[in-house]
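Sync notes, pocket subgroup
Present: LS, DG
LS reminded everyone that the earlier model was apo-only. Rerun requested with adenosine-5'-triphosphate included. Inputs:
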Amino acid sequence: MDKVISLCKRRGFIFQSSEIYGGLSNTWDYGPYGVELKNNVKRAWWQACVYERDNIFGIDAAILMHPKTWEASGHIQNFFDIKKDCLSCKRWFKETDLTDKNKCPECGAGLTEGKPFNLMFKTHQGPVEENANIVYLRPETAQGIFVNFLNILDSKHPKLPFGIAQIGKSFRNEITPGNFIFRTREFEQMEIEYFVRPQEADKALEDWIESRFNWYINLGIKKDNLRKRPHAKEELAHYSKACTDLEYNFPFGWSELEGIANRTDFDLKQHTQFSAKELTYFDDVTKERLYPYIIEPSGGVDRSILAFLANAYFEEKVRDATRVVLKLHKDLTPIKVAVLPLLKNRDEITALAKKITSDLKKHFVTVYDDTASIGKLYRRQDEVGTLYCVTVDVQSLEDKQITVRDRDTMLQERINIDRIKEYLQDKLS
Ligand code: ATP
């Protein structure tokens, strides 16, 4: 984990937030490579969950929502963790994290009584700070989907089963954030609410568990490091009939990456009651009005990034040196191609390398670098997971060929310059 964190900072994936002021604890900023990786993760999810399906509609709802939303959803009454403080060192803990519920895991002293602590961030809308103006930063994106259920029915006229997908920020005032970007107070979620006939819910849940499991595997997560963990009855949220977590074997142990739950008709019924708008579906075939059941695959963008990074980090012995390489899947890796001139003080070589770069940039995320020796340049690109390094040398000026090096095999191939685009397109498609 330390190695992944150090690489993230050194190479510009993820930085501590507000570092010049000493940092805001457990808050992180994505740097130049981090934002590319994040966008790629979100794009891959959207591709699989929206574009490749016929019946899923994307939305992007606001973070601030009508406060009644959170009464209907149960978050105001139920979204609590129990917090206990150490009587001696004053550290605080989430009760469910404690093995001995009465003893401080840090110093061994006693603990206070558990106190419920609501995880929602509260603020005020408008210039007057009074109770009537309280709004919350959403703790999940799901509710933004439920309140748009009728809008989707009226604008898209979907037939069951259908889904609504959303990616966006969520906020939880976690008692014990930590493990780098695993648990933070501001994070991003990728969620689908999939509406089905109640009798089809069990099968749909199984299908989604499989489909979401395979999404991670198809993006390179090793099978041995991913598992399904069905929840025991007593673990289930109050609205949930069944839930399976996908867990990844993080450097700190098996932990949740994504939850896939059968939320029943709880949400639509609750919002119907609180809004007095009927959130039902009319079935043309049976001429019945019904509350669909909801299957919810709910994953974290940041957690999946941590899993992809940990999964991709390799240290390999190459001759006598250690090569650090991020073997990220081609769809996720921030940079696809780096163009590197072998002799930076030969104008014709750099000019040719720059020309190739600008041509490739139109098709792939491509960078140019001539600021170090070739060995160092390769090392830099390996560390950020660049798939192909293209080198331009003296010979290239004459034979109009360049060398392409593959990140994973390190094998090199001479290719005609006018074939390079097709060559890479072939490899990257
Ligand atoms: P945990 O038990 O780890 O707190 P949860 O079961 O409360 O998670 P859900 O409410 O199911 O989480 O949220 C769905 C997904 O959102 C999680 O699987 C995770 O990927 C992500 N997520 C939830 N809370 C956080 C957080 N504080 N930081 C980063 N990601 C989070």
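DG: The mean pLDDT is 96.
LS: Residues 84 and 113 are 6 Å apart (CA to CA).
Action: DG to write up.
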